[in-house]
Every structure is written in C-alpha cells, then in structure tokens.
Design a protein that fits this description.
The complex is a heterodimer of chains A (308) and B (213).
Chain A: H1 4-30, E1 36-37, E2 44-45, H2 51-62, E3 77-86, H3 91-104, H4 111-119, E4 123-129, H5 131-141, E5 147-155, H6 157-160, H7 193-196, H8 200-208, E6 226-230, E7 248-252, H9 254-264
Antiparallel strand pairs in A: 1-2, 3-4, 3-5, 6-7
Chain B: H1 3-8, H2 27-47, H3 62-67, H4 73-88, H5 90-93, H6 120-128, E1 134-136, E2 139-141, H7 149-152, H8 157-174, H9 184-193, H10 203-208
Antiparallel strand pairs in B: 1-2
The chains are: A alpha+beta (308), B mainly alpha (213).
Amino acid sequence: MNYGPVIFLAAFFALAGSWFGFVLTPQMQVGHLQQTNTIPAGALYPVARPGLARQGLDIYRANGCAYCHSQQVGQIGTVCDVLLTDAGTNQPALLEALLKVRQDGGQPLSEAAAKQLLAALPKPVLQGVTKEVADTAVKALAVGDAKPSLWLVPVGSDIARGWGLRHSVAEDFLFDDTVMLGSQRIGPDLANVGVRLSDPKWHLLHLYAPRSLVNGSTMPPYRFLFEKRRIERAPTSDALPLPAPPGYEIVPKPEAKALAAYLASLRADAPLWEAPVTVPASVPPADTNAPAGGTAITNSAPTNPPAK
Amino acid sequence: MTPEANQSMPMTPAPAEPREEPNVVPVWLLVCLALLLYWGMVYFDQRGGWFNEHVYIPYRSFQELVSMQPSNPEGDFILQGKKLFHDNCAVCHMDTGSGNPANGCPPLVGSEWVAAPGPDRIIRLVSKGLTGPIEVGGKVYNTGTMLAMGDQLPGDEKEKAEKIAAIISYIRTEFGKKPGLIKPEHVQAVRAEIAKHTANFTPDELKAAPENE
C-alpha cells in the first residue's frame, strides 16, 4: 500500500496545528497590543527605549546575556493592605470601626493597641487580606473625614527578592523587537534592573569587573567591551575609576555604553490594568539580591508597604 | 540467492497472516476518559481565563481582574463631572474651558471665579445663571446671559446638588487648579439659601455672597 498521502497529511496537520497554536493564536491574542495607560496615574506605557538603549538591546543579545538572565517576574497572588493616613474628626467612631474591621479581618486588636495605632498615623491597619475584606474595611473606616486607602500588593518569591513590583505582561515588551525573556536564572532577573540600579556607570564598572562590586559573582567579565589606552593629554571623563597601569586608562567602547544604557532602561514596574498594583513609590527599600558590594547603588525596587 | 537456486526451491503455501480479532473497548476506559475530559474542562474554565489577552497568572478570569482594579471614587466623581460639563456647559464654555469670547462667553481657564478660594459663589452662579457684564481675567464680557443651568438639570434637589457638585469639582480641578471635591451636601445647603432667588444673579450680587462659608 502506498502510505505517501497519509504521511503527507499527517505531517501537514501536525505542522499546521503547531502553526495555529504557536503563531496564529498568540498573534491574534497579543499582536494588536498598543501603548496603554498606567492605572491610575494615566501615563503612557511603555515608552520606546531611547536610541542608545535600543542599540544596547542588540549588544545584550549578541553577548548572550539572556542565557543567564531572565527578564520576567512571576507572581503567585495579590493581597490587599488598608492604610489609614488621617484619623479625621470623629475619633471614638473611628476607634469602634477599627476594632470591628480588625475583628472581621481576622486580626483582632486590643483597644489600647488601637488607640496607640491611631495616635501614630499613617499606619497600615489591615495587611494581607482579600480585596472584599479590604473594600469593606475602607468603607467602614471612612467615618468623620478619616482617610483610609487600599493598596494592592502583589506577592510571590520574585517580588520578595525585590526583582519587581508585579508579574511581567506582554505590554512590557511592546517595543523590544527581540524579546529577551530568557529561560535560566544563573544571574538575577533583569526585568527591573534599571529600577534597582539606575546608574549606567555602575553597570559599566560591573561589566568590566563584576566581583569588584558583587562578592562571589559568577558573571564573566566583559573586558572586550572596554579599551585600555594611553592617556594622551588629560584622562577621559568616561574612564572607569579603576587602578590602571600609570599613563593608561580603561575606557568603555560604544558597545559597553549602549549595553549599560539598555540595562539602566529596564524598568517594568508600571501599574497596568492587567497587572494592578497600588504600592506607592516612596516606600523604604526592601532587602534584595541586588549586589551587596560596598560601592553598590542599592536603590531597590519598592516591594513592601512600610513596616509597622 | 542466485536466480537458479530460487527456481529450484519447492513451492510451499505461505503461512496465514496473524489477525487481531475485533475487541470491544472496555467501558471503564471510556468512563475514565469522560471523567478526564470533564475535569480538564472544569480546570480550564476556572483557570484558563478563556484566552483573554488581559488575564495573566495569578488572575484566573476577567471578572477576577475587574474586581481587583484599584477603586478610585474621587477620580470617578471628577469623571462624572467631566461628562456633565461636556453635556451641559461645553456648548458655550467649550470642552477646553476656553469659553467663546466672540459670543460673550467668558473662559473658565484662568478665571478668578472658578479658582476662588471657596466654591460658594460658583455654586450660586451655576445654580441660577448670570446676567450683566462680568469681569474675568481682566476683561469684561457683557453680551450674554447664562441660563439657570443648575436649576435646569434633571432630577430632584438632591440629584441636582450631586450633579452640580461633580461639575464644579471638575472645573475647579481641571481649569482652576484647585483640586478637591465639593460635597453634594454643601451644594444642597447653598442652594437652599438661594431657593427663593428666581432671577439670574448679577456679578455684584455674587460678590456680595461669601466666597467660602
């Protein structure tokens, strides 16, 4: 029997099926995405990377950074916090409402502790509750001009490490024409590295000599992106602050500058409709895996509401 | 083998092909498959988000995502005011608040009436309308009369007060750079004071009223 047509049909349907599943369906799902607005600030997001940072994406790709670094933050859930910023005018009613809210939220509070809490606002009054409980609490606490507010706090191991504020969504990669998602995490996730380490100079130094900034870093030095050259008249302003042989300096090549600009531009922390977050930007830095070296700039991503 | 050797072989009948007897699929297997299919459908229905492009882990459905949106009553109130302004006021004052000076309609942007410390005069003005020359931003507009737009809003007194409060909150925030919500109860109180006033206000009458009570 001639099996040719059967084999042809089987191969055709296998390929057609995977084309539908892997190409057509995703294209129909997210192919039409456009710039959107952050919620609730209403700023445009994402903005295209500036020119140098866009070139840096190609350097990132060419040097295989994505083999060790991912650019996608995971999230396992979202909890709500209720923050009281102003006690308003009707303190006794607020105290009563607060006690009831804590009782209903499963976090009962003694009256003395509640009074103490109200004396030192702003303070979170409920933490880690569901949206329904938090909504009810906000309504209940709005007595006598008191100002309760609700925070949506994404949780997950990546977020606890300070790698991001929320999970990554397709919108974050809108202007990247090679999406460097990565699959391995031999190094830390870089989706928000520009938030943690916003200074391109830090990145230049780190690319040249990773262990000078991060103890025990396993990242190979990328010294071929730099040039050791003789100081002609005066040192270049771009030169790295490193010991070099007398009369020489270490200067980043354009590739290194582009890569550093790209890394500093990586920030995917805007609250979007599909990834709601309402943690205010001005919370104290949480502990991160961000380099712990002495000269490290440790402005980490905001991850947690202020501690009690 | 050579052809000669082949020819010399005796012809023997080929052994019969082995055959698989038709066999019924066991019922338990079908039941298991049906249960598996059912479980898969339920699992997908609860967690798949129906392939919606907005739904990502950890959210399981569009409804869940909608319920997680940060609630913003202040912003909603201002938005309501914006819509009401567009429907009722923008014919003369324009959506941009630039007014229509050619028709004697003063601008709201940069107007000291809008950006006043308190909303009480503008509540009176919007409720009962205005006639006579009015000075706005150093320029006198005297050809038009504003109707009693507030009184003409649909609804009972409470609804009117809510709508006026939303409109004034919007214009003060947007055009007057005086953010903050005007409470409907306050509008209702001011309107109760001027309930007997049937004619349009004049600018002098408005100036006689307090800016903020």
